[in-house]
Every structure is written in C-alpha cells, then in structure tokens.
Amino acid sequence: MTNHNIGIIGYGGFGKFLHNAWKSLPSVEIKAIADKDENRNPGAPVTFYNSWRDLINDPAIDIVSVVTPPRTHAEIACAALDAGKHVLVEKPLAVTFRDAEKIIAARDRSGKTAAIDFMQRFNPIVEALHHLGQKNVFGKLRRVDVENYAQDSSLSDDHWFWNPDIGGGILVEHAVHFIDIVHFLTDVQPTRIDGFSASTDGRRENQVVANVVYEDGLIATHYHSFTRPGFFEDTSIRLSYDLAQIDLHGWIPLTGEIRVLVNSETEKELSKLPGFREIRTQKINEIEDESRPEGWGSDDSIENETSGTIRSGTTDYQIDKMITAKLDIGKSKAEVYQQSVRSVMTDLIKAIENSEHRLRTPLESGLLSLDVAIQATEAGRKKE
Ligand SMILES: NC(=O)c1ccc[n+]([C@@H]2O[C@H](COP(=O)([O-])OP(=O)(O)OC[C@H]3O[C@@H](n4cnc5c(N)ncnc54)[C@H](O)[C@@H]3O)[C@@H](O)[C@H]2O)c1
Questions:
Q1: Regions of the chain where pLDDT drops below 50
Q2: Does 124 contact ligand 1 (Cβ within 6 A)?
Q3: Does residue 90 have its Cβ closer than 6 Å to ligand 1?
Q4: How far is the CA of 116 from the centre of ligand 1 (A)?
Q5: What pLDDT sits at residue 277?
Q6: Which of 74, 88, 175, 330 could form a Cys-Cys staple with 171, CB 3.0–4.6 A?
Q7: What CATH number does the domain located at 4-118+335-382 have?
Q8: Is the CB of 91 under 6 A from ligand 1?
Q9: How far is it, in rounded angstroms, from Cα 256 to Cα 327?
Q10: Fold that domain 121-333 belongs to in CATH
C-alpha cells in the first residue's frame, strides 16, 4: 500500500470520531481538517482550513472525507472529485435524489474513486450474514423488522438534524443505515414504498416508519424514534428467512440469537457467524409441530417432515436439524464501530490502488437507500 493523505471536511462529532479511528491505520495520514467553525481546529500537526475549498485545493491531499451535514455533501463531494481527489461521503449520500446523482456523475467524469460510509456493511455479524446469505444457508429473506429507539437529549431544538431541508428527516439521515443493511443482505429490488410519521411534541417529526416491499416477497419495516433518554436506547433487527429467524441487538449489532434449519452442508457454514454458540440441536423428525393443537383433525397437509424436505415460503428445502444458537462479536460498541469505519477506508484505498477491487460501499448503494428513504418520507408527509 502506498501512503495516502486524508483531508476531513466537517470536524464535528463524527469527523472527530473518524480522525481517531483512522489515525492508527497503516499507510494513512490525516493531513488536513476543514470546518467553517474555527473552534474545531485540532491544532498541529494537522493543517486547518476554514474553507473546505482550500482543503480540496491542497495538493498534499489525495482522499477527501465529507463529514458535514447532509445537504452540503453534494456540492463538496462534486467539487472534491472535480479537483482530482478520491472521496468518501458520509451517509446519507445527499438529501435529494438529484444531488446524489450529481455525485455519481462527478465520480464518473473525474475517473476518481468514491464510496459512501455505510460502515454497517463491515460489522462482523452483518458481514457474516451477507456471506451465508450468498451461499443460501438461510433460504430466502422474507421479512426485516427494525425497531430503533434513539435518544434526543443531545439534539437541541435548533440542531440541523431536525431541519428536513438540511438533514432530510430521520428516514434519510438515519434509517438509510438499516435500509442499506437490507440491500446488503439480499439483491432484490424495492417495488412498493410507503411511510408514516408522527410527532410527540407537535413540532418535530420524531417518530417515523418506512414499509418497503421488495421483489420475491420480502417486506421490510423500519421504525425509528428519537424521543427517549440515552440510557433507554434500544435497537432490534429481526430477520426472517425461509429457514432461519435471526434477532440482532444494538444499533451497531453486537449480539444476537438464531434459530435455523440446516442440513449437513449448511450446518458447517454456521461456525462463520461471530461468537457462534450452540444452545440446542434437534433432529427435525424429533421436533413436534406445535402449530396445530392436539385433536385438530386431519394432519394430511403437513408434508413428509421426517424425510428431510420441508416447504417454506413455497420453496422446498432439504434439512435435517434445527439449531438454536447465540451470536456475540465479543467487543465493545466503540471497538466495532471504529473497526468498521477503518474497514470502509481500507476498502476505499484498495479500490484506489487496484481498479479490479470491487468496493463494498459504492455510491450506488447510497443512491438506492436514499431513494427508498425519500419515497417513504414523502409518503408519510402526504398523510399528515
Ligand atoms: N456513518 C455513520 O455512522 C455516521 C455517524 C454519525 C454521523 N454521520 C454523518 O456525518 C455527517 C456529520 O454529522 P455530525 O454528527 O458529525 O454533525 P456535526 O453537526 O456534529 O458536525 C458537522 C460539522 O460540519 C461543520 N460544517 C457544516 N457546514 C460546513 C461547511 N459548509 N464547511 C465546513 N464545515 C462545515 C460544522 O461546523 C460541524 O463542525 C452527517 O452526514 C451524518 O449523517 C455518519
């Protein structure tokens, strides 16, 4: 790896977090910071610019990280690409579809490499589920249910987060992470999108829902609430596949439970799940079907479960066991978060150095999740 000099534009909460995470990466130097607020200057040895335009014109910088509020992403990212820099844009890619498309066009005309910071794609659990999903270990994904209670105590009334023109609203600013997890776990395309929003104070849209129907019978629901104190934060992600039910915990998922139907081949793959700890294994012909109470009548409709073929989601699968297990990355939220953003930067650098390398977080993933989030937001506002 050759040495890469990074300039970070926007040095608020997340810009600082990225600086701390990236400074220990090999072959990387954080050379410059730009923020319109001079109080954000971290001091030497980093060069500080009051204007982001000066940073993108600094010949020492080859990668620009855009960590300003969402509405500003498009102008800064396009200018940085046109100035010949590689770019990592924070999520959401933009707050309008048109602006997001402009960033993609700027990448294409500049020939530079650009990615979006969908760091959840590098979370070890999400990563493992992606790989096992590609091997069809769980069958098809049919339902995703995200329930996310976030805190609002650090978000003052005048914070840009509450201004839809700057942040895009909760689905655009925040839910795109989770919408993107769905897109990472399956290739199916959205076909119908709906949304709702509500306010607990009559002023701010602080509870939102997006319902997304995908090809192949997948329905995803994303509920996000920014109404509770920090100690009450809670995020659960339930993934229902034809052959597995998986519950993940934490907005950066750290632990989970899985109940999965396997055969001898697919069982081997489960050990790739982080901290996989088997709790119970049952042979399929020894599991009682409790869906019908005793005395219900004819059992003819329940097909040859003892022979190893089961039908789920109208697909026949060969399975012989049900395994119940726990998952645990075994690291703190801060460690996993930092590692994930390091991986995003490392992946971008691999793509800069090798044109054959396929980016894990391409701008197109940012465009797709933004499109879903905008449509759900607009649908929700029409109902108000
Ligand atoms: N990937 C993630 O997990 C993650 C997590 C948190 C935030 N984010 C994203 O990072 C971005 C920033 O969020 P934040 O929480 O750090 O916000 P913040 O308000 O804490 O920081 C934004 C900074 O940008 C500066 N700024 C604003 N406009 C500017 C301009 N035109 N030129 C130069 N500086 C400017 C502000 O002075 C401020 O210091 C947002 O897009 C947010 O969604 C991503």
A1: 301-304
A2: no
A3: yes
A4: 14
A5: 98
A6: 175
A7: 3.40.50.720
A8: yes
A9: 5
A10: Dihydrodipicolinate Reductase; domain 2 (3.30.360)
